[in-house]
Amino acid sequence: MADTATTTPAAAAASAANASTDAPPFQLGKPRFQQTSFYGRFRHFLDIIDPRTLFVTERRLREAVQLLEDYKHGTLRPGVTNEQLWSAQKIKQAILHPDTNEKIFMPFRMSGYIPFGTPIVVGLLLPNQTLASTVFWQWLNQSHNACVNYANRNATKPSPASKFIQGYLGAVISAVSIAVGLNVLVQKANKFTPATRLLVQRFVPFPAVASANICNVVLMRYGELEEGIDVLDGDGNLVGSSRIAARHALLETALTRVVLPMPILVLPPIVMSMLEKTALLQARPRLLLPVQSLVCLAAFGLALPLAISLFPQMSEIETSQLEPEIARATNSRTVVYNKGL
Question: Where, by residue number, does the polypeptide cross the bilayer (predicted)?
Answer without folding.
Answer: 167-186, 198-219, 258-275, 287-311
